[in-house]
Sequence to fold (196 residues):
Amino acid sequence: METQKNNFLGDNTKLVLEFDYTNCFDLIHEWLAIPSIISKIYKCFFYIMCILFIISILLRPNLHHIIINFGFAIVFFLAFIGGHQFLHLIAAYIIGCRNVKLMVSKANIFCSCDKTELNSNKYMFVSIFPFAITTLFSIIIAIIFPEYLGAVSIFNIFHFTISNGDIGITNYFLNNKDTYFYCNQDKNTAYLYKKS
Fold:
């Protein structure tokens, strides 16, 4: 590890954590559980969407309407899984990353900024961007087309679920603002470290 560390971290850094970023679900759930404003907002939005879905059923309690809304939500969500990662890619380009691309590993699609150092603020922006943009856009759709409130609610419930990794990582950096992120795509390894 010392050889790898000196290749990109230098002598003035302290390695905090090294992990396989294609298989870090337990780590992310641990970070998601850290109390913070972002974890509270995330949980609030999730419960609000569940309540809105119930309200949409009570407003139009017929099976045909429920099936149509559920069908729209599922189809749009499946089509949007790649779109979520594309929004990560856009966010990375906004902050100046150029060595960025979409990857597929273990049936997962994800955005990778290979061999690029990101400070906590930059990483949080890239991480939270799809969640924020998609939530805002879906709220606008629900306001313009209230008959699809159920579909928007179901879509967001699913989208919030796949965003929990992004929220967990954002949560970690909120509590560790002096931490930097670097990944080595060849080794599927991410490094968290601090600079002295």
Observations:
- Strands lie at 13-20, 100-105, 108-113, 118-119, 179-184, 189-195.
